[in-house]
Amino acid sequence: MLYRVFLRLVDRLPLPSLRMQKILAIIVILTQGGIAVTGAIVRVTASGLGCPTWPQCFPGSFTPVGVSEVPVLHQAVEFGNRLLTFVVVLAAAAVVLAVTRARRRRGVLVFAWLMPLGTVVQAILGGVTVLTGLLWWTVAIHFVASMAMVWLATLLYFKICERDSDLLVTKTVPEPLRLLTGLSGILLAGVLIAGTMVTGAGPHAGDKSIDEPVPRFQVEVVTLVHLHSQLLVGYLALLIGLGFALYAVKAPEIVKRRLKIVVAIVLAQSLVGIVQYLTDVPAALVAVHVAGAGACTAATAAVWAACRVRTPSVEPSRA
């Protein structure tokens, strides 16, 4: 009943073109990944508790207040990051309205609704991070969830690009290679999780607004760096092996092209990581590295999406 009312209200909106739906989906990808970058900026500027409570910024106020205990810069950076959540929500809501108004198929609608729902979950995780005093593992979960949203948003984009009239799902590569592509996503998740562990033990605790030090992950950071790098080597090796296999089976050019993009991004990301390690993790490179993680996630999801496409269930008439 409520959904029917929702549909009647949505039907009053202009009918969005396919191009507009694609643009909105791209904006969703950028906002989901972008808020992870701004979160990194919060961390490296030590502004994590610039707003020490949640959902309010300060007790009794949703906006920053002039208190000497918390520097104005830290308040502004953390509050600004919270405001960006509304941009993410608006983008997610816009894509839901667009695909609903266009009466897209069920698969598109499901992925579209995951955007606002996932953003709400992310906001709650952000609140838990603040209320626990920036415990490293809460920050790690918050980041990994952002990357999961980037993956889902990327799949949403490619689902929107497909025609709803095409009913047959066709594999573009043999099933073992598709599974290998899925394994690359799992390995990427391992790389990301290990990266959050490095951050949890590293120098950027995320806050200097309180007297007590933020609890860190009590493992030697060099050990975690080796774990992170070895997982990255495994991920890259799998991608290269997948590339040779795709050429061997004469996979469609689009799959091979997307894989090349992934490998290029991973190599660039590796270079950033090496420079970070050799230069004692400068703050600016942390944000660059987080942006690279989002790019790796989106590019890997794009390869996964290319392994199956929707095609017409019957040959069109040539008459």
UniProtKB/TrEMBL annotation:
Matching Pfam families: COX15-CtaA (PF02628)
Tree of life domain: Bacteria
Cytoplasm found in the keyword field: no
Location in or out of the cell: Membrane
Record's bilayer topology term: Multi-pass membrane protein
Keywords from the UniProt entry: Cell membrane, Disulfide bond, Heme biosynthesis, Iron, Membrane, Metal-binding, Oxidoreductase, Transmembrane, Transmembrane helix
Associated pathway: Porphyrin-containing compound metabolism
Residue ranges crossing the lipid bilayer per the database entry: 23-46, 83-100, 107-128, 134-158, 179-198, 232-249, 261-278, 284-307
Annotated protein name in UniProt: Heme A synthase
